[in-house]
Amino acid sequence: MFPLNDNGMISGLLCGVLFGYVLENAGFGSPVKLSAQFKLTDWAVFKVMFTAIVVAAVGLWLLRLGGLLRPDSIAVPQAALVAAAVGGALVGAGFATGGYCPGTSVAGLFSGRLDALVFIVGVLLGTTGFAVFYGAALKSIKSAGLIAEGDTFTDVYGVPEPVVLAILGLALIAVFYFGSWFERRGTGTVTAQQAVEGAR
Amino acid sequence: MSTSEKQGNPKIKPFWSPLAAGIALGLVLLLTFVLSAHGLGASGAATDMVAGVGLKLAPEATRANGYLGPMVAEGSPIGSWMTWEILGVAIGALAAAFMGGRFRVQFDGARSVGTSKRLITTLGGGFLAGFGARIAGGCTSGVGLSGSAALGISAFVFLALFFATGMIVSRLVKGV
Asked: Which of A121, B5, B68, B120 has its CA 20 to 30 A from that of A132?
């Protein structure tokens, strides 16, 4: 029965190597490629993310259906909606400003980008700043809007999981359809050649 | 631009298509859930680094800190699953960049916005992302990607605000 609850070194290294390998091959080491998502000229970020979300979510559902995965055994982020909104806005602002997010900055540095190293220093400083200023104000943001009934649409609103998955599938099709529409009208997606040459 | 640049460097292999990369990422994420019971992450490794380095440099202050204190109660979190995973990300990205002929040492964005401005945008962007990730309890990988695959409500709230704010800010600031 899965999950194995293996949080050792080999498990971490294995998942990380594969994650990093896919990130770089997707073009996500390049801040030009990444920030083009917000300029709406290259939708690779959302196409890749939504495809991965649907593949993993359907996979988890099938494993549970087949009795291979214990129910309620997978970590779900707490439904603290205000914290998710404020945090999401700040990470989005940081992504648009710096051209990376915490994970992709590691892919950026290890494809040779020294600006990504500065971004990583910024992430470490931001984390330190949060810890230094962690008090009543930050605690109340973190717990505001918390849904007590559960963390998923199924637990809180009673939406059956196959319905949630079907909506996600439709969202995926919409991302590819509208994304490609924007890409055709824009300056073209960022090629590996352009990404390696760097921002100009 | 030289002729060779116009024709393209044949050593540079193209990126995977978004569909192929997305399916691969989804399978890696599924493997991660099956192995560890949680998804992929990134900013958590930064938190473990800050807590671990803090414990070395300023043990009293770190133990007394309301956020970091509980994380170092049982020793340094360096060596956690998340710190190994981030080391793996570095190795995997390095391998992919070399195998694809895409490894090039550069300060990306220096030519488009200038070195000093690029220093500020990348440092400031990192700060915002690091601070914001601690509020949300994770970043694009941990909450946005993994949380959505686990069908968490907060993950979709995170992604909606991530996208909306990113679009607005990218119109106000030229960061790269």
From this structure: B120
CB spacing of B9 vs A63 below 8 angstroms? no
pTM: 0.96
Q: Is the ipTM of this complex over 0.90?
A: yes
Tell me phi and psi for residue B106, to 5 degrees.
Answer: -160, 165
Task: Encode pLDDT of A100-122 as tens digits.
Answer: 999 999 999 999 999 999 999 99
Partner A, chain B 11-40, Cβ-Cβ below 8 Å:
12-16, 18-19, 21-40
Distance (Å) from the alpha carbon of A112 to chain B's nearest alpha carbon: 4
Q: Smallest Cβ distance to A15: which of B40, B83, B176?
A: B40
In degrees, to the nearest 5, what angle opens at C-alpha B125 toward C-alphas B130 and B147?
Answer: 45
pLDDT tier at A187 (50, 70, 90 boundaries)? confident
Is B113 close to A199, i.e. CB distance below 8 A?
A: yes
pLDDT for the residue numbered B8: 73
What is the DSSP secondary structure assignment for residue A190, as one 8-state letter?
P
Cα B139 to chain centroid, rounded: 7
H/E element, A194: helix A192-197
